[in-house]
Design goal:
It is a single chain. The protein has helices spanning 4-18, 20-33, 45-48, 81-94, 96-102, 130-138, 145-160, 168-177, 179-190, 198-209, 215-226, 241-254, 260-266, 303-316, 330-335, and strands at 56-61, 66-70, 76-77, 212-213, 271-273, 278-283, 287-292. The protein is α+β, with helices and mostly antiparallel strands. The protein has a 5-stranded antiparallel β-sheet, sandwiched between helices. It has 2 domains: 19-79 and 211-334, DD-peptidase/beta-lactamase superfamily (Beta-lactamase), CATH 3.40.710.10; 82-209, DD-peptidase/beta-lactamase superfamily (Beta-lactamase). The structure holds 6-diazenyl-5-OXO-L-norleucine (DON). Residues 79-80, 112-113, 130, 174, 181, 209, 274-275 line the site of 6-diazenyl-5-OXO-L-norleucine.
Length: 343
């Protein structure tokens, strides 16, 4: 007899095969697959090995439906996308007041790896730039580096519903080329913004950037935030509900590098991108989007990922300040009752 998990995956695969929404995503995928702008990140050799044609789009709804097209099981390193989720874990470990005393929530307008702290408070500006992410990693509890990494990996498992490994070659390269991050970390040590176990924290930061995920994972992570911190497929709580708003607020204001303002204007969904080519985007109360396509634009965001999110937001009215009727009704498209003839 089939167990509940089998029935769930059967339901998922049926909705994937027959749904009009899935067909819509498939057309979107085809439309942007031919876009060849952008360049794969090459600051370390392992990232340059990515195939620029890899392209996966996955949407997971808060009621546990999953729609995927393209390369949704191809793994890649999570890179900066980890920063948003580790920030959530730091909030759980230390509480909001303490975390706020160590990391601000202000967009910088500076490059993500800028060696700059707030002059008044000595805090890094926000958890999405490297300085803030290192200060955030420093706040993760655990007896030693191994336990702290395990706590991070367990957290990602609660978000995605599956276990995660790190890419050791990427970690080793990040570590051996990471002198700029080391400089940022020691500047923060000078101001007492991070603790003495700084080399352990730097390793932890390089490891968190090297965690392997796929587009489906990114969609589940976003859907979990959209669902108040509970994974809609497993029912596991990944983040204390009190901190969901904090995490997605900094995603909206700071998640897309120097494109964050433009992103808020055009797309509006809290999101985070990484140099591996991933984007995770949250439509609170509705769904999560995960996209993987390695070629990046000049700001460091996946070219195809930005296009897909812009189109999904505008077609389905996913911008949180959208007033008036969306061009397509999301509920109808997902339920399969949309009037496809007028499409
Ligand atoms: O710290 C670094 O250099 C990279 N591992 C950061 C990765 C990334 O996605 C860029 N971030 N904002």
């Amino acid at each position: 007899m089939a167990n509940t998990g089998d029935l769930k995956s059967l339901a998922d695969s049926i909705s994937s095969v027959t749904s009009p929404f899935r067909n819509y995503l498939s057309d979107l995928h085809e439309k942007y697959q031919s876009l060849t702008e952008g360049a794969v990140a090459d600051y370390i050799p392992e990232l340059a090995l990515a195939d620029p044609n890899w392209f996966g789009i996955c949407v997971a709804t808060v009621d546990g439906q999953v729609f995927e097209v393209g390369n949704c099981t191809q793994t890649f390193t999570i890179q900066s996308i980890s920063k948003a989720f580790v920030y959530g874990l730091a909030l759980e470990d230390r509480g909001r007041d303490y975390v706020n005393s160590k990391v601000g929530v202000e967009p910088t307008g500076e490059a993500f790896n800028a060696i700059v702290l707030d002059e008044g408070t000595n805090r890094p500006y926000n958890p999405m730039v490297n300085a803030g992410a290192i200060a955030t990693a420093d706040l993760i509890s655990g007896q030693d580096g191994t336990e702290r990494l395990k706590r991070m990996l367990d957290m990602f498992q609660r978000y995605t519903g599956r276990g995660h490994d790190i890419s050791v070659p990427v970690f080793m390269s990040e570590k051996s080329t990471g002198n700029r991050n080391r400089a940022i970390a020691y500047l923060m040590l000078n101001f007492g913004m991070v603790g003495e176990k700084l080399e352990e924290t730097l390793d932890l930061y390089f490891q968190q950037c090297s965690i392997l995920v796929n587009a489906r994972d990114l969609a589940m992570m976003a859907a979990t935030l959209a669902n108040g911190g509970v994974n809609p497929c497993t029912g596991d709580r990944a983040l204390d509900e009190r901190y969901v708003q904090d995490v997605i607020s900094v995603m909206l204001t700071c998640g897309m590098y120097d494109y964050s303002g433009e992103w808020a204007y055009r797309v509006g969904m809290p999101a985070k991108s990484g140099v591996g080519g991933g984007i995770t985007a949250v439509s609170p109360g509705k769904l999560g989007i995960g996209i993987f396509s390695p070629p990046l634009d000049a700001k460091g965001n996946s070219v195809r990922g930005v296009k897909v999110c812009e189109e999904l937001s505008s077609e389905f009215g996913l911008h949180p300040f959208s007033v008036g009727k969306a061009k397509r009704d999301l509920a109808e498209w997902i339920a399969g009752s949309a009037d496809i003839d007028s499409w």
